[in-house]
C-alpha cells in the first residue's frame, strides 16, 4: 500500500473517532442541560400545575435515537388548590405514567441545516392515563383569548417541518373520574392499542383535508369491555372496538345488553311486571363518520350505521303486579329527539335481525311468544340535529320481516320528528300464512287455539299520534275455525266443543268475504291508553281492525267471553261427577 493511502485512512479513522467522542461528550454533558430545560418548560407552560419526572434519559446524536424510562407527568395538588381559590383551575387534570418511551432516528443534523424535525418512529409502552374531572362554574363564564393560529404557525418560528413516520402506543390503561359534590364516578378502559401513521406539520399539511389532525391514519383497537348499570340489573359489554380514521370507520363486535341474572331471579328481585330486554349484535359498523365533528363538538355524524345480524328479545311476566307509568311522549322517534347526544345518520341498515316478545299470562300462567324473524330494513334521516331538521323533519323506515318465521311482513313508517304530538304513519301488508302458526302466542295467553285458518293476506294503512290511531285494515282469509280451551284436573288442555261451535257458527265470520258474499273492511279508530307503549298501541290498533273484519264487535266479543266462562264453570261442576261414574278406576 502506498504511503498516501495510509495517510488518508488514518485521517478518516481519526475523524470518525473525533466525531464519536464528540457525540459521546455532547450527549453526556447536554443531558443535564436538556433535563433542566424539559422540566422548566413543563412548569412554565402549565403555570406550575404539572411536574415532570423520569428515571432515565438517554439519547445519541450519532444514531438519532433517544429513550426515556418511567416518565411521570403529575398534577401538583397544592398548586391546583391555589388555582381553585383564584378561580383559574381547569375542569380536568391529568396524571400520566409511561413505562418506556423510545424515539428512533430523529435526524438531529436536519434540525440544524434545514430546520426540519424528522422522526422515523416513536414507541410508547404501557402508558397509564388518569383524567380527574371536577366541574367549576367559573369556567362557563370566564372569557379567555384563544390562540387561533394553526399548529404550523405556532412552530414556524423554530421549525419549518415536523414529521413522524409512525407512533405506536401499546397497552394503554385509561381511567376517567368524574367528581361531584357527593360521589366519584369512574370509567376505566384497559389494554388499548393505538397506531398513528404519517404525521406531517408544514406549510401545506395544515390545509390538507385528507388528513385527520395532521395524520394520514390513526388506528385504535380496544379489546373486551364490560360496564354494569347503576341499578345493578343489567350489563353492557363488547368484544372489540376498532376505529380507523383513514377509512372513516368504527367497528364494534360482540355487543351485548343483558340482565346480570336469570329471568326468574330478575322478576323475583323486581317484584313487578316490567319488560326484560336481552340484546346481542355480532357486528355494528359506522361508515363515513365525521371524526373531526365528533372531536370538536361531540356530534355523531355518519353516512350509515350497519347492524349485521343479531337478536332482540323482550319478555314480561304478568304474574307480578303492574306499576303503570305514562308512556305518552316515549315513542322511538320522540326518544331520539330527547337524546342528549347529537346524532345525524343518513341511513341505519338492519340485516337479518331476530326480534321476539314473550309474556307469561297472569290468568293461565303460561308463556306466549311472538317472533319477527329475518328482519331487514333501512331507516333514513335518523337525526336530532336541529340544523338538519330544518331541511328535512321526516324519518322514514322500510322494514321486511317474517311473522312467526312464515308470513312475509312489509311495513313502511314515517315519523315527524318535529311534531309535538309524535305524529307518525305506518302502512304495510302481510303475505299468505297458516293461521295455526299464531297459536304460539294465542294459546298460552288466551286459552284458545286456531284449529285452522288460511290467511291470504292483510293490508293496513294507519295515521297516528300520541293519543289516537286512525286508518283501515283489510283481512283476507277463509276456512277459519277457533277452539276455546279449558284445563282438566290433570292439567291437560281440552277443547270446549259446544262453546267453540257456537263461536264459529254465530259470532266469528269463517271467511272474508263471508258466507253471504259481504266483504268486511276493518275501520281503525283506537284511543291510546296513557300506559300503553308505542308498540303495544300499534298492535292493539291493528287488532281492532282484524276483529272488525272477522265480525267480532265489542258486543259479540263480550258474549263470547261470557259463554266461555259459563262453560268452564259448568265443566268444573259436572266434570268430576262424570269422571267418577264413567272413568276408569285406578288399579
From TrEMBL:
<feature type="transmembrane region" description="Helical">
    <location>
        <begin position="7"/>
        <end position="26"/>
    </location>
</feature>
<keyword id="KW-0472">Membrane</keyword>
<protein>
    <recommendedName>
        <fullName>DUF748 domain-containing protein</fullName>
    </recommendedName>
</protein>
<keyword id="KW-0812">Transmembrane</keyword>
<keyword id="KW-1133">Transmembrane helix</keyword>
Amino acid at each position: 500500500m502506498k504511503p498516501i493511502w495510509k495517510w488518508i485512512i488514518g485521517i478518516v479513522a481519526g475523524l470518525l473517532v473525533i466525531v464519536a467522542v464528540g457525540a459521546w461528550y455532547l450527549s453526556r454533558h447536554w443531558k443535564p442541560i436538556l433535563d433542566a430545560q424539559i422540566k422548566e418548560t413543563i412548569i412554565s407552560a402549565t403555570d406550575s400545575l404539572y411536574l415532570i419526572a423520569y428515571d432515565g434519559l438517554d439519547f445519541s446524536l450519532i444514531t438519532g435515537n433517544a429513550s426515556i424510562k418511567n416518565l411521570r407527568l403529575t398534577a401538583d395538588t397544592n398548586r391546583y388548590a391555589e388555582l381553585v381559590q383564584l378561580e383559574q383551575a381547569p375542569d380536568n387534570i391529568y396524571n400520566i405514567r409511561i413505562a418506556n418511551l423510545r424515539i428512533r432516528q430523529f435526524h438531529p443534523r436536519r434540525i440544524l441545516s434545514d430546520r426540519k424535525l424528522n422522526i422515523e418512529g416513536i414507541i410508547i409502552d404501557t402508558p397509564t392515563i388518569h383524567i380527574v374531572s371536577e366541574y367549576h362554574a367559573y369556567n362557563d363564564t370566564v372569557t379567555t383569548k384563544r390562540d387561533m393560529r394553526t399548529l404550523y404557525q405556532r412552530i414556524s418560528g423554530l421549525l419549518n417541518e415536523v414529521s413522524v413516520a409512525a407512533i405506536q402506543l401499546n397497552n394503554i390503561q385509561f381511567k376517567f373520574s368524574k367528581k361531584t359534590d357527593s360521589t366519584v364516578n369512574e370509567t376505566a378502559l384497559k389494554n388499548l392499542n393505538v397506531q398513528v401513521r404519517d404525521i406531517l406539520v408544514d406549510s401545506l399539511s395544515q390545509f390538507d383535508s385528507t388528513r385527520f389532525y395532521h395524520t394520514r391514519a390513526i388506528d385504535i383497537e380496544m379489546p373486551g369491555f364490560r360496564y354494569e348499570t347503576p341499578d345493578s340489573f343489567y350489563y353492557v359489554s363488547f368484544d372489540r372496538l376498532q376505529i380507523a380514521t383513514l377509512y372513516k370507520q368504527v367497528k364494534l363486535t360482540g355487543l351485548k345488553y343483558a340482565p346480570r341474572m336469570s329471568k326468574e331471579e330478575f322478576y323475583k328481585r323486581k317484584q313487578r311486571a316490567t319488560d326484560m330486554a336481552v340484546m346481542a349484535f355480532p357486528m355494528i359498523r359506522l361508515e363515513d363518520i365525521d371524526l373531526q365533528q365528533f372531536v370538536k363538538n361531540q356530534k355523531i355524524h355518519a353516512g350509515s350505521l350497519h347492524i349485521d345480524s343479531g337478536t332482540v328479545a323482550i319478555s314480561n311476566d304478568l304474574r307480578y303486579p303492574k306499576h303503570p307509568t305514562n308512556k305518552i311522549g316515549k315513542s322511538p322517534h320522540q326518544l331520539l329527539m330527547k337524546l342528549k347526544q347529537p346524532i345525524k345518520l343518513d341511513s341505519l341498515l338492519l340485516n337479518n335481525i331476530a326480534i321476539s316478545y314473550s309474556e307469561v299470562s297472569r290468568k293461565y300462567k303460561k308463556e306466549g311468544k311472538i317472533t319477527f324473524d329475518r328482519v331487514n330494513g333501512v331507516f333514513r334521516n335518523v337525526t336530532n340535529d336541529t340544523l338538519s331538521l330544518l331541511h328535512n323533519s321526516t324519518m322514514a323506515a322500510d322494514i321486511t320481516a317474517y311473522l312467526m318465521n312464515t308470513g312475509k311482513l312489509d311495513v313502511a313508517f314515517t315519523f315527524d320528528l318535529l311534531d309535538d304530538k309524535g305524529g307518525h304513519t305506518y302502512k304495510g301488508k302481510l303475505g299468505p300464512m297458516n293461521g295455526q302458526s299464531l297459536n304460539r302466542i294465542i294459546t298460552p295467553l288466551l286459552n284458545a287455539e286456531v284449529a285452522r285458518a288460511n290467511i291470504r293476506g292483510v293490508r293496513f294503512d294507519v295515521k297516528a299520534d300520541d293519543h289516537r290511531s286512525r286508518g283501515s285494515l283489510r283481512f283476507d282469509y277463509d276456512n277459519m275455525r277457533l277452539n276455546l280451551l279449558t284445563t282438566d284436573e290433570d292439567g291437560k288442555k281440552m277443547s270446549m266443543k259446544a262453546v267453540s261451535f257456537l263461536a264459529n257458527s254465530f259470532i266469528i265470520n269463517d271467511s272474508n268475504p263471508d258466507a253471504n258474499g259481504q266483504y268486511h273492511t276493518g275501520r281503525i279508530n283506537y284511543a291510546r291508553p296513557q300506559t300503553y307503549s308505542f308498540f303495544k298501541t300499534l298492535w292493539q290498533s291493528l287488532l281492532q281492525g282484524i276483529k272488525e273484519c272477522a265480525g267480532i264487535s265489542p258486543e259479540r266479543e263480550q258474549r263470547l267471553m261470557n259463554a266461555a266462562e259459563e262453560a268452564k264453570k259448568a265443566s268444573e261442576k259436572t266434570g268430576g261427577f262424570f269422571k267418577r261414574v264413567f272413568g276408569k278406576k285406578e288399579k
